[in-house]
Amino acid sequence: EETIRRMVWQVFSMDRLLAGGYEEYIACRVENMTIRLPCIESAYRQNTRVLTDRLSDVPQANLPVLGLHGWQIRATDLRHRIQVTTRKLVMPSDGVVVEASSFMSHINQLQNELSKLHLNFPKDLKLDAASMRHYMSAPERAGYVWLHSHVGVAHIDLYRFALPGFEESISDKINHLPPEFVRQSQRQAV
Asked: How many CB atoms lie under 10 A from the CB of residue 183?
């Protein structure tokens, strides 16, 4: 069961990564993903049945049964939502100018979600010297690096709009953003 669940979630991840922030390219819709997230790797290897959250559930702090793969799914989904939202804010398809307060509210809301995701990682998945030492000699090394790389890239995606030269950078349509917010966003992206 868990192996099949992990394969389905892998398809979900690839769907999000290949969509590149375009919601219309998504085949695996969140509302259709009612299966539970992958469990902790030790339970998977020992074929122990554990009950994990669904993607739509609010994660509990340090949920002990959600595995590295489960946290990767949460990170992939959030990164996709960040890409979709920032694209819509910066390049609205209907040409309607986004109000500065609404724009900043969306960015702050996504930053809060990203921070909560990172803070909810179990102690052994936190990005610190002890967990790095552990994972660099573990079979899950690539997954650990992948998780933290994607959280970092999601953070950059969130603030990419403030960097000049990107297609998704601030256009003339959003020129009412406070200069300090733009400068702070540039610092966050870098």
From this structure: 11
Nearest to 70 by CA among 2, 23, 161: 2
- DSSP 8-state class, residue 39: B
d(CA 26, CA 48): 32
Between CA 55 and CA 87 the distance in angstroms is: 23
Whole-number Å distance between alpha carbons of 72 and 51 = 17
Q: How far apart are CA 187 and CA 190, in angstroms?
A: 5
Q: Render each residue's pLDDT in the chain as its tens digit; 190 residues.
A: 899 999 999 999 999 999 999 999 999 999 999 999 999 988 998 998 888 889 988 766 446 788 899 999 999 999 999 999 999 888 877 777 788 899 999 999 999 999 999 988 988 899 999 999 999 999 999 999 999 999 999 999 999 988 887 666 665 555 578 989 989 999 999 8
